[in-house]
Amino acid sequence: MELLIHSFANGSPAGNLAVADTVFGQPYKEALVHQIVTAYFAGARQGTKAQKTRAEVRGGGAKPWKQKGMGRARAGTSRGPLWRSGGRAFAAQPRSFEQKVNRKMYRGALRSILSELIRQERLLVVDNLDVQETKTKLLIETLGRLGLTDVLLLGDEVSDSLYLSARNLHWVGLADVDALDPALLISFAKVVVSQAALTRLQEQLS
User: What predicted TM-score, i.e. pTM, was given to this entire model?
Assistant: First the structure.
């Protein structure tokens, strides 16, 4: 399989790049992608919620009133779950929401997503992601020439100039190959990947 390389500066064709079908020509496995993306968002949860049981709430040591003769329901503590300011019956405790994902599944999901992006013509390969100046206006003009409005810029590494130029644009995402995750790949309408980044991705996913 060959992919067309565009010039990031002006959008004109700049050659072709041969890529492996074993990486970029795979069928889309929706169940696998769903499992990996779900695991990613589950792992991002804080899991720090904490509540107190009736044993942990302060107070409530004394019996509020005697057992009989008061005309009220019997009570042994004022910190039971039925009482205001009482403890919770099934109190939430800090826990991890992480789900196990092995390397084979993770790489398979990335291959599946990248292949589907190519089939849908949502993956654009450019020669590089270099910006001439650290100016947001110039980056907007560059992306405009490529017809991009909701885009992830994926490079071998993200330069300071590119980061500073794009950080105020809510419709532009930045990532390098080492920080790539499946959820980020499917969050944008288009993915612009540099030639060097695509070569590294192929090496990692082969």
Answer: 0.83
